[in-house]
User: What shape does this take?
Amino acid sequence: MSKTSEFEIAPLRSLDDFLLESARFQIPNVNDFEKWGKRVTSNLLYYQSNYFLMSLIIFVIVGVIHPTKMACGFVVTAVIFMVFSYITNERFAAAQFKKKHPVISILLILSGCYFVAYMLKSLLVFMFGILLPISATFIHSSLRLRNIKNKIVNRVENLGLKRTPMGIFLEELGLDQEGF
Assistant: This one.
């Protein structure tokens, strides 16, 4: 099916609907993965702006509590990705360097290991800052029961009449609701 409609940012749902008075929560039936998956997908689509805002707030709170560790953790993560990217893209050059300069190669590896070990606390705080919002989003989307408005909005998204960031993301992961 061709989904050529315009990209649209989902509206922010009210705090009452998202978390407070009218929100209904229930532990999902973990034996019925299909129903649980539909609930999670449906809530991810319906509350996507709320989840983004909640994730941003949690990430900022962790950053305010541990600003230096968050910054250092980000730098360590970036360095690890850059080194990994370089080594995988320049395999031949890395192998040549290792052959020509074995002692320097070993010293670089040991220095890299020491750097990661020394910055491990910072790396863990940064990963916590990323994984805590993801966990909170998954827990909320698993426990929050769907309502009629939620189901209607998700059908419109499913038909391709509206394209939202979460809809595109779930579609790329192969988790669109039609797949359930």
